[in-house]
Specification:
single chain; 411 residues; mainly alpha; 2 domains; two-stranded antiparallel ribbon; 2 strands
């Protein structure tokens, strides 16, 4: 701590304190409320069915959207009519109003979410229970939720980039914590990492239909994971100012999912929408989260080893490393999750919705890609995993490009 302070003083940089404004806490809290309500809503559909629009899960979703939208709207009005020259200079004009880019994205997301509400209500009245997660009204809702989460990420990122001193980069050590380096900016980093973790959780929820434990011995699972996760982890890591940012973001995702899994099982539930093929007495939690901390740790180490240059070489290593590490961890862990050892409240394995009829398919792997036992299946699996590596490489390259842009966001 003393060495870091002395190094900073030698640069001649004045020591300033950067407090996180209240609207940043509001947008991050709103983003957390939205993702928590979304996970709760999926569990509600699997446990009870669609009984009314005014479920607690829906209220949590729309509370988060309204909180983020109103706080961002207030920030736009304040910046437009009472903003300082610095605030106006760090804003984006739109229709005569001025505000940070993240605030505009949050406002758009809130409008999209509110627009989807009556659409979703009509859809369920007309067609009943959703067959898939991404029904048309849910797609509009998902875009609105994504807007809230991207807006929260951009707002915390802009504040973080403005508050973090560039001189700190010269005194960071491999295992130093952010508050060892800049005690006045660690809370901004924490808000940014939390917003990035929520965004990663959103990607996991929106691809939940491809992330069931029973699918983790097929190439399709790794291909879908390669599309969505490397870009978020790599971009979040490149724009962060702390050690092991991708690992931290993945740990936040796992923490949020585990909290929801352990809490939802405590609530009683009774199915109300036929057909009921699997009677329940408790809420059905989501499946155990993916072990993304393992490939995320590899991402952090590779990015530190290669550095900020040679992005194409780095993206190839990141893509291959992500698939290899995810395969090595998830392949065998999924076997454990399908065993009797995981059928307990901690791992929440073997819990299915009321309209998902019982069968041995609960506890076996699904051959979604047409794989059967034999040498030929291993050849097909190897080809599928090679495709996953190519996809992860492209996703990592997008993440590196996005992260470089994110590191320069100031408004």
């Amino acid at each position: 701590m003393a060495a870091a302070t002395a190094s900073l003083q030698t640069t001649g940089s004045p020591r300033t304190t950067h407090h996180a404004p209240w609207h940043l806490y509001c947008v991050v809290l709103g983003s957390i409320s939205v993702i928590g309500g979304l996970i709760w809503d999926i569990s509600w559909h699997r446990s009870i069915g669609r009984d009314t629009f005014w479920t607690p899960a829906h209220l949590a979703i729309y509370f988060g959207g309204i909180l983020a939208g109103l706080s961002s709207g207030w920030l736009v009005l304040k910046t437009t009519f009472a903003g300082t020259s610095e605030e106006c200079g760090a804003s984006v004009p739109f229709w005569g109003f001025r505000g940070p880019l993240g605030a505009w994205v949050c406002i758009w997301g809130a409008f999209a979410m509110l627009t989807s509400a009556p659409f979703d209500n009509w859809w369920h009245d007309a067609y009943g229970l959703d067959v898939t997660i991404l029904s048309p009204p849910h797609a509009v809702l998902g875009m609105g939720i994504l807007g809230i989460q991207l807006g929260a990420l951009l707002m915390t990122l802009a504040a973080n980039n403005a508050g973090f001193r560039s001189q700190v980069s010269g005194v960071r050590g491999l295992f130093e914590k952010p508050w060892h380096l800049a005690p006045d900016t660690w809370h901004l980093q924490a808000l940014y990492l939390l917003a990035a973790g929520v965004l990663l959780t959103m990607h996991a929820v929106m691809t939940m239909e491809y992330n069931f434990t029973n699918q983790m011995h097929s190439a399709r699972f790794y291909q879908v994971a390669a599309v969505v996760f490397p870009a978020v982890l790599v971009a979040g890591a490149r724009a962060a100012k702390v050690r092991f940012p991708a690992t931290t973001i993945a740990a936040i995702y796992m923490g949020l999912m585990l909290v929801m899994i352990w809490l939802l099982q405590l609530f009683p539930a009774e199915p109300k929408l036929a057909p009921i093929t699997h009677p329940l007495s408790r809420m059905v939690p989501p499946h155990f989260p993916l072990l993304l901390v393992v490939p995320a740790l590899g991402i952090d180490l590779l990015m530190r080893w290669i550095g900020d240059r040679r992005d194409w070489r780095l993206s190839i290593l990141l893509g291959a490393g992500f698939v290899i590490l995810l395969l090595g961890s998830q392949w065998y862990f999924s076997e454990f999750l399908l065993s009797t050892l995981a059928r307990n409240p901690v791992f929440a394995a073997g819990q299915w919705g009321y309209n998902e009829g019982p069968g041995d398919w609960y506890y076996r792997f699904w051959a979604l890609d047409g794989f059967a036992d034999g040498d030929y299946s291993r050849v097909l699996l190897a080809r599928g995993l090679a495709v996953a590596v190519l996809i992860a490489t492209a996703s990592s390259r997008v993440g590196l490009w996005a992260g470089r842009w994110m590191a320069r966001v100031r408004r």
